[in-house]
Amino acid sequence: MLQQTAIDKFLVKSEEAAKVIIETVQKDGNISVFSHLDADGVAAAGVIGKMLVRLDARFRIRVMQWVDDKIVEAIKADKPELVIMTDFGSGYLDLLNEKIPDYNVVILDHHQITGTTNNPRIVQLNPHLYGIDGATEVSGSGVAYFAAKAVNAENVDLAPIALVGALGDMQDKYEQRSFHSLNEIIVNDAVAVGLLKVEKDLTFFGRETRPIHKMLATTTNPFIPGLSGQETDALNFVANLDIPLKEGDRLRALCDLKDDERKKLCTALADYLLSKGLHLEVENLIGNVYVLTKEEPNTALRDGREFAVLLNSTGRMDKPSLGIAICMGDRKCALEEANKILEGYRKNINKYLGWVMEKPERLRELNHIYVIYGENFINEKIIGTVSSILVSGLTNNEKPLLAFANIEQEQAAKFSGRTTEAALRKGVNLGDVMRIASETHGGKGGGHNIAAGAQVSLDKIEDFIKTADELVGKQLKGEKIGNENSN
Question: Which domains does the chain have, with CATH numbers?
Answer without folding.
Answer: 2-159 (3.90.1640.30), 200-354 (no CATH), 359-476 (3.10.310.40)
